[in-house]
Amino acid sequence: MSIGPVQETSPTFVGMPAFPEAAREALANTQQRQNLHNATHTIRAKRAAVVAEVDDWEALRVAGADAKDEALHHLGDYLEQVEESLTANGAIVHWARDAAEANRIVIDIARAKEVDEVVKVKSMATQEIELNEALEEAGISAWETDLAELIVQLFGDRPSHILVPAIHRNRTEIRDVFLREMARFGRPAPDDLTDDPARLAEAARLHLREKFLRAKVAVSGANFAIADTGTLVVVESEGNGRMCLTLPETLISVVGIEKVLPTWDDLGPMLQLLPRSSTGERMNPYTTMWSGVHDGDGPQEVHVILLDNGRSHVLADSVGRQALRCIRCSACLNVCPVYERTGGHAYGSVYPGPIGAVLNPQLRGTSSEVDASLPYASSLCGACFDACPVRINIPELLVELRGTVAEQGGHRAESAAMKAAAWVLSDPRRLAVAQKGATTAGKLIGKRTITKVPGLGAWTDARNLPTPPKETFRQWWAREHEEGGQR
Amino acid sequence: MLLDGGMTAAQPRTDLRVALFATCFNDTMWPETPKAVVRLLERLGVRVEFPMDQTCCGQMMTNTGYAGDAVPLVRHFVDVFEKYDAVVAPSGSCVGSVRDQHPMIAHLAGDPGLASEVEEVRPKVYELSEFLVDVLGVTDVGAWFPHRVTYHPTCHSLRMLRVGDRPLQLLRAVEGIDLVELPGAEECCGFGGTFAVKNADVSVAMGTDKAEHVAETGAEVLVAGDNSCLAHIGGILGRQRSGIRTMHLAEILASTKENPA
Amino acid sequence: MSPSTSAREEILARVRSATADITSEPRLIARSASGSLPSQLAERAISRAVGAEEGTLELFAENVADYRAAVVRVPAAEVGGAVVDALRSAGVQSVVTPTGLDQSWAEAVGAAFDVVTEAAATSAQQLDQVDAVVTGSAIGIATTGTIVLDHQPDQGRRELTLVPDTHVCVIRDDQVVHDVPEAVTRLRTAAGQQRPLTWVSGPSATSDIELQRVEGVHGPRTLVVIIAGTP
After folding, report:
1. pLDDT band (50, 70, 90) for residue C48
2. What confidence score (pLDDT) does residue C210 get?
3. A71-311 domain in CATH 3.30.470.30?
4. How many whole angstroms separate alpha carbon B8 and alpha carbon B12?
5. Which H or E element spans position A93?
6. Alpha helix positions (H), A166-253
7. In this entry, which stretches build a coiled coil (chain A) (predicted)?
8. CATH architecture assigned to B148-254
9. Contact A422/B61, CB-based, under 8 Å?
10. B131-142: per-residue pLDDT in tens?
11. What band does A276 get if pLDDT is binned at 50, 70 and 90?
12. What are phi and psi of C103, to 5 degrees?
């Protein structure tokens, strides 16, 4: 038995602080908090409206979870099948154990094509493996073509949301960066550019069009890889995906092994679940499906890289593997009260929000500060589970991962406190003795308000503490029912 | 059976052997809540017992990552409560732990006997509003509370137990009450047990927004089905000297003209 | 053994050991067309669509328009004129037509605009100079306001409907289905026979800047859907 290794943390995120520290910094950024509040509440309302239009959303969720579970439970078989059908359709299939291997395959293909640039469709998998950085090092420019990714790239920034990566930037900031940076990479922004979103989109259209028309190689991910037909699916809005998937001669798609769907029919539920959960639309503007090479139409050399990078490690956990159902819709981010206030950067990964809080510690293990803190970055309010289109029980996974973190030690005081509490609480006599301490304090404090207790600063810095009562319920009951006889 | 839009209990359920699970937090910190449950249920003709051996559901250990330490508590819980027909608790969170987490803990303990006992006890454990509306079939409990009140549906009641509008049905039937809607009611208050301490900054940011919404309503009283969430929001309201009181649902439902809360 | 082969073997071994606890049989062997949940959903969608055709068409028109495409309903015989009208109001001068476009529509367009044929449009750069494209379509989906192109000869290569800024798309009313699963089922073809598919729901759009929806980034910014009555 050889369980796959965890993913190596990519250079960008090595040494990230624990979530609470990063969150504190994010909370102080009032502009970002306002942007996030507006954005998450807007998408929440849109999602709720289009979900309500569906007759039996719950049945769809079950069908979606079912299709993904089928693929994951028999992943070996379906991977072999998808490889076979893709190959039959004229695609070239590669396998990559980790980020370095996947990046090397892409670079080798780009070099064989003698290009110094590639155009890219927004892809979480290529962000995860930091492909752009690897290409840059190899002297190959990677142009992000999704508007938000372009914004992030021009800022030299990191995405903060799966779906709307520039959610933390407002229109004025975007105009300024277009005026400042576009000229360095190609067609400059028009001098009279305003911060009207339509004008900004137009500037991006013109800037990128020359790149689309020129590019020889494109890199994409895939939302789904259909095993029985050998079809890849990319779901998008702007048409940049279609440009990349259609115009260049060579297409390289980096596909996580968990993206496999068993059959073509599984697209039925998936194409209802994903757009409604993601952008809150009945359907996204554009979806492209291609099955290898299509004679005389689109790229005539099609590569597919099947990427592990920690996924097989997650798959080995019988509870944790449900996280691999994730279709990257970001509904959980948009409903999460924690994400809404901290934004994505505090999660120290390309996968932020509730799904990031369970996926990162599973993909990367819990040895780093940030990964060990992520399972606690939730109030367990359950809004994410309710919103998840493939029924990932994120609160359950968070609790399980807390167990993993607690088990690895290093929390001696907490562990001792929990053991002591369990010892007290497993016996009513011990509990009664312990309660005497509280009621004694209650008698001493009387009606005064508790605003500060040494060692409880995390609570009392902003919250008063409840005053303990002079008598517990148990003492009252005993007094009423046993000393005082039957009522 | 329908009276003023609400249901009143037709028959006192003397056939049921009902236990009160006070929960360890309420027992120790907020005894007025379980006392109110006793008063309320007795008023409705239910004889409620308080098994003195009861302790804790183990949620704190489980949610902090020490589910193993919760095993003896789960064992103790089923031992104490298995002989009752119904167990009532004034806490959505603790009932949620019994329903959602106890099976997982029994599984973790690798004890099929415990697992089957858990399966037997689990469906008999009710959060207060569920017990009143579903078991007793009552929404008008004959309460009197002439104050402006807003209700916060705590996350575990809302999304684990799915109590729906049961608490609101009960509150709407209270005589004299001025019940006002809480904006953003379904959003978490930020308590989250261990979260309130481990991520105190985010927790307080969430609680502050919740407190602002509460203040917007102009309510005198914030009511909820969980004292832990109320302690968090109330702690912030108190620090802000807002003058808004927090009360458990049970205490409002127990309040009468003769014995007002 | 090439490095790639060993990566393949290693990943498959990891995956198989990770799922060693699974005892069920994979569906790929046992599955029949009617046995799975998605197909049941599809069947339900199909049965619901039957007898509700006018409602389905209305819903389709409503949802296409809701995503800010222009919608025109005409009898089959008037499609050519409607196409010309749509192109005129979009203010275009040059139009590319796919090889298999309906003869009468092609003639109507040819009489009014500069036409570039699919065969003559050999590069994307060339298409970038063309204002509009006129195509047929494969399937329409009412609940989502979606048109699916399967790039048969009446729709042309994918780049034809991507690079020009205006797309006039004709769909026959018997091509409109009620819901997504039915479309998926109908679009399934035999293994090895797959066509590329483009699902289009309204014109290209982005909400990346402060979540304000802007129509038109890279794909056609004007989309006109002409629903043709059955002849």
Report:
1. very low
2. 79
3. no
4. 10
5. strand A92-96
6. 171-185, 197-214, 240-246
7. none
8. 3-Layer(aba) Sandwich (3.40)
9. yes
10. 999 999 999 999
11. very high
12. -55, -45
Best CA proximity match to B1, nearest among B134, B140, B169: B140
Query: What pLDDT was estimated at residue A21?
Result: 95
Contact B255/A at CB under 8 A:
no
* Antiparallel, parallel or unpaired: β C139-141 and C205-206: unpaired
Query: What value does the mean pLDDT take over residues C95-111?
Result: 97
Domains and CATH numbers, chain C: 36-187+197-203+214-228 (3.40.50.10420)
Q: Would you tell me which residues 365-424 of chain A have a C-beta closer than 8 angstroms to some C-beta of chain B?
A: 373, 375-383, 385-386, 396, 399, 402-407, 414-415, 418-419, 421-422
Chain A CB within 8 Å of residue B92 CB: no
Q: Which residues pair with A225 in a beta bridge?
A: A232, A260
ipTM of the complex as predicted: 0.94
Q: What are the pLDDT digits (tens) for A461-473?
A: 889 988 899 999 9
The closest CB to that of C192, out of A53, A89, A289, belongs to A89
What are B116's two structure tokens?
């089957």
Q: What is the CATH architecture of B2-135?
A: Up-down Bundle (1.20)
Residue in chain A closest to B155 (alpha carbons) equals: A381
Tell me which of A473, A479, A480, A487 to substitute to probe the interface with B (most B C-beta atoms closer than 10 Å).
A473
CB atoms B66 and A422 under 8 Å: yes
pLDDT tens per residue, range A129-180: 999 999 999 999 999 999 999 999 999 888 888 878 888 888 999 999 999 9
Distances A387 to A46, A308, A342, A384, C165 between C-alpha atoms, Å = 13, 27, 19, 5, 37
Percentage of chain A lying above the pLDDT 90 cut:
79
Asked if A30 has any chain B CB less than 8 Å from its own CB, the reply is no
C94-97 and B148-151 beta bridge pairing: unpaired
pLDDT of res. C231 = 63
Give me the residues paired with residue C164 across strands: none
Counting other chains too, the contacts that C182-186 makes at CB distance below 8 Å and 24 or more residues apart are C182/C42, C182/C45, C182/C46, C182/C49, C182/C141, C183/C139, C183/C141, C183/C146, C183/C148, C184/A264, C184/A265, C184/A267, C184/A268, C184/A271, C184/C38, C184/C42, C185/A265, C185/A268, C185/C39, C185/C42, C185/C46, C186/C139
Average pLDDT over residues A252-279: 97
User: Which segment of A253-257, B166-170, C119-123, C201-205 scores lowest on mean pLDDT?
Assistant: C201-205
**Residue written as token pair 């494969």:** C138
Taking all residues of chain B, what is their mean pLDDT, rounded to a whole number? 94
pTM of the model: 0.93
Domain with CATH 3.40.50.10420 in chain A: 71-311
CA-based nearest distance A426→chain C, Å: 34
Closest residue of chain A to B80, computed from CA coordinates: A428
CB-based touch B/C (3+ pairs, under 8 A): no
Contact partners for chain C, using 3 or more CB pairs closer than 8 A, are: A
Q: What is the residue extent of each domain of chain B?
A: 2-135, 148-254
pLDDT tens column, A6-34: 999 998 898 899 999 999 999 999 988 98
Going B252 to B254 to B256 to B260, the CA torsion angle's sign is negative
B204's enclosing H/E stretch is helix B200-216
The one-character DSSP state at B100 is I
* Phi, psi (deg, nearest 5) at residue C72: -130, 135
In the predicted model, what is the mean pLDDT of residues A88-101?
A: 97
Whether B14 shows a pLDDT value over 70: the answer reads yes
